[in-house]
Design a protein that fits this description.
Keywords: Disulfide bond, Glycoprotein, Secreted, Signal. The chain is mainly beta. The protein has six helices and 26 strands. A hairpin with a 3-residue loop joins strand 2 and strand 3.
Length: about 425
């Protein structure tokens, strides 16, 4: 009861002294069957050129329902002589009358004593966007115009766009940009461990007779750890392939990417203009985007190489079978990670097919529920692959150094199928 009493008392105090309009010029809409519309305001139905004052305002901007000196009071359902902003103003705003419209404006006294040293913009970084946020009313107090805020390179309309958002009951002005080199002047750099995206924000000054500040230029940076996925961003032509991976039991779909890397930390992608000598260790990285890593992990069931881009080519050499390294075909391979996270890492020593210039690597992968033993070895891969609808196959072509390996026959590998055919022919010749 005490809380109800306090609420009622607060409402009474708020409206104490508030007087509803009861004049005759303009008349109340109830006396002339009037109504309110956004396109022409509140008018009598008898003569649509005669304005009226409603007791039920349905206009988008309800203060426009009221004559000069009055403001719409939603609690009393009338035009009141008490200045009321509806919805209520934020914590750093105050209700003022602007052209007879109750308007929330920055309360300068809320920032009394604040200086530029108190101005601290925040930068939010995710894999897709960067967002810089500033306090609207603090900027206004300091003499800046938060409506004149844009990226320094404003060649595109999107570079000039800013928007307001309410955070902790205060207005915040934001600018959002894509994580992309060159977009609106964004500059990407990198070192051995991180990617950096840098840009600059321009904030203009208020149009006043007395100017106390200069336009502001804010430089901001987002940094990202170099990973198997992010390292592909700065590579110009990375050897990679992305396919759609069905979710478990056919529910949902995800992007499965496979790429080849030069180093064991998976941050130096092999690019289309590179060449790799036969016998070099390379690293195959597979990862899934936007999947729930707490519920699923990526399991690569098998990887094999062929001399053509036909995945059914009988001349194949296995690298991974049943989720584990397969060396029976004479190729050195190591499964560094598989079935533990949304990434899989495989090390393989490059080889070539006798008389062939290409090596295509195919991998079959699936999202494995973590309730299962996703990192276990099993060689029933053919049965698993044919009975499951949740596998996806991806492939890449390794750019070999043709000059090196064509001049040396000691670093080539052939599949058991090719070797068997050769032995059969040799046997017939002996007979």
């Amino acid at each position: 009861m005490k809380y109800i009493y306090l609420i009622v008392l607060a409402a009474l105090l708020r409206h104490a002294g508030a007087a509803c309009y009861n004049g005759t010029d303009p008349a109340l809409c109830t006396t002339c069957s009037g109504s309110c519309f956004d396109n022409n305001g509140c008018m009598c139905s008898d003569d649509e050129t005669i304005p009226c004052v409603p007791t039920a305002c349905q206009m988008t901007t309800m203060s426009l329902c009221c004559p000069s000196g009055y403001f719409w009071n939603s609690d009393l359902s009338c035009c009141s002589d008490t200045l009321i902003c509806d919805p209520p103003c934020l914590s750093d705003e105050m209700c003022v009358s602007v052209s007879n419209v109750a308007t929330c404006a920055c309360n300068d006294s809320a920032y009394s004593g604040k200086t530029i040293a108190d101005f601290s913009p925040s930068v939010s970084c995710n894999t897709v966007t960067m967002t810089i946020s500033v306090s609207q009313c603090l900027l206004a107090h300091l003499g800046y115009d938060y409506t004149n805020m844009h990226l320094l390179n404003s060649s595109l309309a999107a570079c000039r766009y800013s928007y307001s958002e309410i955070i902790n009951n205060s207005s915040v002005r934001k600018v959002q940009l894509r994580v992309e080199d060159g977009w609106c002047g964004t500059i990407m750099t990198f070192d051995s461990t991180k990617l950096y995206y840098k840009n600059s924000l321009y904030i203009g000054i208020q149009n006043k007779s007395i100017i106390t500040v200069s336009p502001m230029l804010l430089n901001f940076t987002c940094s990202y750890n170099l990973t198997m996925e992010t390292s592909l961003i700065y590579a110009l032509k990375p050897i990679q392939n992305t396919v759609t991976l069905p979710g478990p039991n056919g529910t949902g779909s995800y992007a499965l990417t496979m790429a080849a890397y030069l180093n064991p930390n998976f941050i130096s992608p092999i690019q289309a203009d590179d060449t790799v000598e036969v016998g070099t260790l390379i690293y195959l990285g597979l990862f899934v985007a936007n999947a729930d890593g707490t519920a699923f992990s990526l399991r690569v069931e098998e990887c094999y190489a062929t001399p053509t881009n036909d995945p059914t080519d009988v001349n194949r050499v296995y690298i991974v079978r049943g989720g584990c390294a397969y060396t029976n075909d004479g190729v050195e391979s190591v499964v560094k990670e598989n079935g533990k996270s949304l990434e899989a890492q495989i090390q393989v020593s490059t080889f070539s097919f006798q008389g062939q210039l290409d090596v295509f690597i195919f991998c079959n992968a699936t999202l494995c529920p973590k309730t299962q033993q996703c990192n276990m070895c099993t060689y029933n891969t053919r049965l698993a692959r044919t009975s499951s609808t949740s596998f996806a196959q991806t492939a890449i072509n390794i750019p070999l150094d043709y000059t090196s390996y064509l001049n040396s026959g000691s670093q080539t590998a052939v599949s058991w199928a090719v070797m068997l055919s050769f032995l059969v022919v040799l046997l017939k010749m002996n007979i």
